[in-house]
Write a structure and sequence with these properties.
Oligomer: single chain
Largest sheet: 4 strands, antiparallel
Number of helices: 5
Shape: extended
GO cellular component, one term: nucleus
Radius of gyration: 25 Å
Order of helices and strands: HHHEEEEHH
Strand order of the largest sheet: 1-2-3-4
Keywords: Coiled coil
Low-confidence stretches: none
Number of domains: 2
Protein name: CENPP protein
InterPro entries: CENP-P
Mean pLDDT: 78
């Protein structure tokens, strides 16, 4: 075999190896990416989970313990949703970058808080140094259906600038609750 033929084969092998690496990266991203679930799909998954553990379970806990734990978690989730008014309707996650001790993921969330709809998009930068893990929210973008209230716009801008998701959800819960109270109060004064 002459050198030009060998070189052509080696080039083809390198090309195929690069294509395999690219496809493997895409496959990993697809495996980590969350999909959108409706409330009905979540309930169906919970029911199938319950049914799955009704059969013979050879673990450390009995099926009745697992069912009791699942019911307790469902009650807790229901309480948190009623208490805060937050309901997430969709979530997606995509890994943007992954190196040895650093990962960047893009998240998209949408949901409702009482009667207000919201959408969030942000990146999570996770870095691991020895025995310490740090997570930072970056590139936060918030869309909130609250009309054109300038105070809310200023608040949202401040939250986006600081990347403080906890403050956003706490404030959104209070704000949405007071919006509902205000609208129900004005309904009493409305002339029919």
């Amino acid at each position: 075999m002459d050198n030009s033929t060998c070189q052509a084969y080696e080039d083809e092998i390198r090309s195929l190896e690069e294509e395999i690496k690219l496809l493997a990266g895409k496959y990993e991203d697809n495996q980590q990416e969350s999909t959108f679930f409706s409330d009905e799909e979540i309930l169906m998954a919970m029911k199938s989970f319950k049914e799955e553990f009704r059969g013979d379970y050879k673990g450390y806990e009995s099926p009745s313990d697992l069912e009791a734990q699942l019911e307790s978690l469902e009650k807790d989730l229901s309480f948190v949703m009623k208490f805060t008014g937050l309901q997430f309707t969709s979530h997606s996650k995509k890994t943007v970058e992954r190196t040895g001790n650093r990962a960047v993921q893009r998240h998209r969330l949408s949901g409702n808080c009482h009667s207000l709809s919201f959408q969030l998009e942000f990146q999570l930068l996770e870095e691991q140094n020895k025995d310490k893990v740090s997570v930072v929210v970056t590139d936060l973008s918030i869309v909130l259906e609250s009309g054109e209230d300038s105070d809310v716009s200023k608040f949202v801008s401040s939250i986006e600038e600081h990347g403080n998701l906890l403050m956003f959800f706490r404030s959104l819960s209070s704000y949405a609750q007071w919006c509902e109270h205000r609208s129900s109060t004005f309904l009493h004064f409305k002339v029919e």
